[in-house]
Design brief:
286 residues; Uridine Diphospho-n-acetylenolpyruvylglucosamine Reductase, domain 2; Uridine Diphospho-n-acetylenolpyruvylglucosamine Reductase, domain 3; Enolase-like, domain 1; 3 domains; five-stranded antiparallel beta sheet; four-stranded antiparallel beta sheet; 14 strands; 35% helix; 24% strand; binds flavin-adenine dinucleotide
Length: 286
């Protein structure tokens, strides 16, 4: 049984004041689908039964809204809410697809996108799309507020850049109107399994579809964090969008990523699949 203090603030101001008082001696709890597994198994710091800062009692953390050219969402937005949101369906279909395969209905009902980001797993399903869109993470303390690019916020597997008295209070995702996006993940089976390789693409085609005006490509589970593939992006932007260009881009992305072998897959397979998945998405763009 977990016998520790659980503090349940009812406002952002109260939550920040508690975090300021306890610093790194208290751990935020959102859906708990990662935290409670670690608590139960006494993994790392969780073995010492640290106090928890329950964020689920803060109503102002529960929002998805359009603000100008961005979509903003709070720390209590669950994967299930993203799946049902008409805003997400309209502007970020790749994210909708990504959350549709997270865990199981129970995990999607509890797990939040902010929890998924803060867990900072290279295999996390929401991250590839957030990297492809250059999403921003708002980190707040009692006397400071900062918007960090997601690639700067996540510094390594399970590691994030946040002050000890800080909380993530918002995610900002550009709408990228006119872009077409997709997300594909390979895993051993669809329910309750971990990603072997994933890819997110956001592309803006010219009117006659003969050129790619802008493209953002990110890969999951092939490096310690999600990675953008700058060389492949640049190649596709500067070549006509033909079958030959797709073929060359498939080869280039395979060279550009440097995956490792682990219990879920080996590096040769991961490398090969980055090309296969990119080709599949590109051929579907027109
Ligand atoms: C059976 C099972 C299946 C799963 N399947 C998948 C899957 O298919 N794909 C996938 O990507 N993930 C999967 N997960 C992992 C998990 O469900 C997700 O990462 C989920 O999004 C975590 O969100 P949460 O709200 O439950 O986070 P929590 O467990 O509450 O928190 C996760 C981490 O984020 C921190 N945190 C939370 N909110 C904040 C905040 N506002 N500020 C600062 N830090 C914060 C917590 O302190 C903790 O370190 C699975 C987990 C389980 C148990």
């Amino acid at each position: 049984m977990y016998t520790t203090e659980i503090l349940s603030p009812t406002s952002l101001a109260e939550a920040l004041a508690i975090k300021d008082q306890y610093g790194s001696d208290i751990y935020p709890l959102a859906g708990g689908t990662d935290v409670l597994v670690m608590v139960r198994n006494k993994i790392g710091v969780w073995g010492g039964s640290p106090p928890l800062l329950n964020l689920t009692t803060i109503p102002e953390f529960d929002f998805i809204q359009e603000i100008g050219s961005n979509i903003e969402m709070g720390p209590l937005v669950t994967h299930a809410q993203l799946l049902e949101s008409s805003i997400i369906a309209k502007y970020i279909p790749a994210l909708k697809k990504a959350v549709s395969i997270i865990g199981s209905p129970q995990i999607r009902n509890l797990g939040t996108i902010v929890g998924n980001i803060c867990r900072a797993s290279p295999a996390a399903d929401t991250l590839a799309t957030l990297y492809a869109r250059d999403a921003l993470v708002q980190v707040q303390t009692v006397n400071n507020l900062e918007l960090l690019p997601i690639a700067d916020f996540i510094t390594g597997p399970g590691q994030i850049s946040i002050p000890k008295n800080g909380l993530v209070t918002k995610i900002v995702i550009p709408k990228l109107e006119g872009y077409k996006g997709d997300y594909i993940s390979l895993r051993q089976r669809y329910a309750l399994s971990i990603v072997v390789v994933s890819i997110a693409v956001e592309a803006l085609l010219s009117k006659n579809k003969s050129n790619i005006e802008d493209i953002r490509i990110s890969l999951g589970a092939v490096a310690p964090t999600i990675v953008r593939t700058g060389k492949t992006e640049a190649f596709l932007k500067y070549h006509n969008f033909t079958e030959d260009a797709i073929y060359q881009a498939e080869k280039l992305i395979q060279e550009e990523c440097k995956p490792i072998s682990d219990i879920r897959s080996n590096k040769r397979y991961r490398k090969a699949m980055t090309g296969v998945l990119l080709g599949r998405i590109l051929r579907n763009l027109t």
